[in-house]
């Protein structure tokens, strides 16, 4: 069924049918009703790709996140969905599963679908792929969220370095001497910045860096569990754990070994209801996910207006 | 920059440029390289919407889920993303936030974008919207997952009724007499079927149904917490809780009231690593999310081949 067929059945011109489909008022009410009835009876679905093609845009933005099963990214996503609804934007999501190739595939797909722009929390191993992101942002407005790459680009990021710095400094001021650190993959900017914050806080407060107190994981519950067992043998009196999943893994070890968390001061980057529920004494931040969502969409809209000033924001926790 | 401009710069016909873009081998290697270089230098991005328009399809399927922050749906989504990757399909996701209007908007959007089909876990209040789903499935292949509507439609569902029936029957055989039930919104088929399973198990095992032992929540942590406080005043010796979030809320009450979970037998529908982590004695199912994902995509592909036999599957737990 084509628009021509509808026009023939309604005994009007193709232009008239087109006006009705596009809610143009310049058609008599009676004719409009007749055409709409015929459209409905024939299950005609207007070829809106063609309409978008002529309009050269639609009202959709693409989002790419690396791990949908992680509550941190689910919360970011939730914030963006809600903000987009408020602004009458549609969201389409790609899940990259920390896979760079899949991420590239989703970007291509979104460009093909003519989204207005893409908001992206990049996969690990994206940090030094400057060429890729240069090329991509020449094709479509791109706003990074949460994770940076090795190049100044429009984006919204949480303040990782000073958040960790502040917590570790507090630990030291409260008399903690052996502060362990469970790090994330160092190919992710957030994991790297958190570790840097830890190192600097030790240095500025006169505590020697001990590499045996720093273990490297992959942000999963399993790695938190395995590294937890290892680090607990080193008589730490406090620990900073770089993300929520590794924190859950660490808490599992404490439970299995029947260790009271009163004896080890624990901190992690982001608050969430499950961690708080398991142990409300854990030091963490109540993350401003909705602020990140709001700013990322605002930046995208600035880019669409070719306003490239103030397009990088760091949100303090 | 149009395809005509590329052709002019490369001193070839538009048809030749088109062949290169579409990876058609029928072009000399030297010419192909020259054209690709010009495309790259000029940041030309082929108008793939127009290509899709002429092909009338692309390799993308749309998914709609009601709540992205719920680990149950995140796990379903994760299964579908992985299965789609295996089959070289692209996924775009809409999050309906349990909002029927938003769900309708995403379906329209996906149709506009010419996805192959839509896999959908419907929002609450979708159960009796038969006209809406009839209309939708006349426009695009539609596969329901997890939640049913009041009409036989292609879909993949978990066995809710007998799962709950089996657990409650076991409770009774183990001597439990006052079995509480925290129900979900009865406008969702899964919540309704779980409650029906509870009622039937009581009946078949000679226990009188006591409506004071059944409380109705909305599938959130908060409602599990509030209903938990209420039901614990009724001296239950076992409880079935209809979803994961309400179970977390219930466990929070136990913790606050310092009640040992040994004294109340607890069951919930789906296993997940966080619930297992908090209390491994909770009775639950290890959900076959990947089977659901696989079957839903298989059914979608059958529909695309106009094979409508065997398109409803119930997965036993």
What is the tally of helical segments of chain A?
13
* Strand ordering within the main sheet of chain A: 2-1-3-4-5-11
Please give the largest β-sheet of chain A. Answer: 6 strands, parallel
Instruction: Give the class-level CATH name of the largest domain in chain A.
Output: Alpha Beta
Global outline of chain A? elongated
Q: Hey, roughly how much beta strand do the residues of chain A contain?
A: 15-25%
* Fraction of residues in helix of chain A: 40-55%
Q: What structural class results from the helix and strand content of chain A?
A: alpha/beta
Set down the secondary structure blueprint.
The structure is a homodimer of 317-residue chains.
Chain A: H1 3-10, H2 14-21, H3 29-41, H4 48-55, E1 60-65, H5 71-86, E2 90-95, H6 100-112, E3 117-120, H7 130-139, E4 142-145, E5 155-158, H8 160-173, E6 179-183, H9 189-204, E7 214-216, H10 221-231, E8 238-241, H11 244-256, E9 265-270, H12 273-278, E10 283-285, H13 289-304, E11 312-315
Parallel strand pairs in A: 1-2, 1-3, 3-4, 4-5, 5-11, 6-7, 6-8, 8-9, 9-10
Descriptive notes:
Two copies of one chain form a homodimer. Chain A is α/β, with parallel strands linked by helices. Chain A folds into three domains: 3-46, 434 Repressor (Amino-terminal Domain); 59-153 and 289-315, 3-Layer(aba) Sandwich (Rossmann fold); 160-285, 3-Layer(aba) Sandwich (Rossmann fold). In chain A, 48% of the residues lie in helices and 15% in strands. The first copy, chain A, is built from 13 helices and eleven strands. Chain A has helices at residues 3-10, 14-21, 29-41, 48-55, 71-86, 100-112, 130-139, 160-173, 189-204, 221-231, 244-256, 273-278, 289-304, and strands at residues 60-65, 90-95, 117-120, 142-145, 155-158, 179-183, 214-216, 238-241, 265-270, 283-285, 312-315. In chain A, strands 2-1-3-4-5-11 form a six-stranded parallel sheet, sandwiched between helices. The first copy, chain A, has a five-stranded parallel sheet with strand order 7-6-8-9-10, with helices on both faces. In chain A, strand 6, helix 9 and strand 7 form a beta-alpha-beta unit. In chain A, helix 1 (3-10) crosses helix 2, helix 8 packs parallel to helix 9 (189-204) and helix 10 packs across helix 11 (244-256). The longest helix of chain A has 16 residues, at 71-86. The radius of gyration of chain A is 26 Å and the shape is elongated. The termini of chain A are far apart. The mean pLDDT of chain A is 89. The interface between A and B is large, with 46 and 46 residues.
């Amino acid at each position: 069924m084509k628009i021509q067929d509808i026009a023939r059945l309604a005994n009007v011109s193709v232009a008239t049918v087109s006006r009705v489909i596009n809610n143009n008022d310049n058609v008599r009410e009676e004719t409009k009703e007749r055409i709409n009835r015929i459209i409905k009876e024939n299950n005609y679905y207007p070829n809106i790709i063609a309409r978008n093609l002529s309009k050269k845009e639609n009202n959709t933005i693409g989002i790419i996140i690396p791990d949908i099963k992680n509550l941190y990214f689910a919360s970011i996503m939730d914030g963006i969905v809600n903000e987009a609804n408020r602004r009458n934007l549609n969201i389409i999501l790609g899940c990259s599963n920390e896979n760079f190739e899949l991420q590239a595939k989703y970007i291509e797909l979104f460009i093909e679908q003519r989204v207005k722009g893409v908001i992206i929390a990049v996969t690990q191993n994206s940090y030094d792929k400057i060429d890729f992101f240069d090329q991509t942002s020449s094709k479509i407005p791109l706003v990074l969220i949460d994770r940076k790459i090795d190049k100044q680009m429009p984006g919204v990021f949480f303040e990782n370095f000073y958040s960790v710095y502040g917590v570790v400094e507090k630990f030291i001021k409260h008399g903690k001497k052996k502060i362990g650190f469970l790090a994330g993959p160092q190919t992710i900017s957030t994991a790297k910045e958190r570790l840097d914050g830890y190192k600097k806080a030790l240095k500025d407060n006169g505590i020697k860096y001990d590499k045996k107190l720093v273990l490297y994981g992959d942000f999963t519950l399993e790695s938190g569990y395995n590294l937890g067992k290892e680090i607990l043998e080193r008589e730490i009196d406090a620990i900073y754990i770089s993300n929520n999943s590794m924190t859950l893994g660490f808490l599992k070890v404490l439970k299995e070994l029947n260790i009271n968390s009163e004896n080890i001061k624990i901190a992690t980057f982001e608050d969430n209801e499950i961690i708080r529920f398991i142990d409300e004494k854990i030091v963490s931040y109540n993350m401003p996910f909705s602020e990140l969502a709001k700013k990322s969409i605002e930046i995208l809209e600035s880019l669409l207006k070719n306003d490239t000033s103030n397009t990088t924001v760091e949100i303090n926790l």
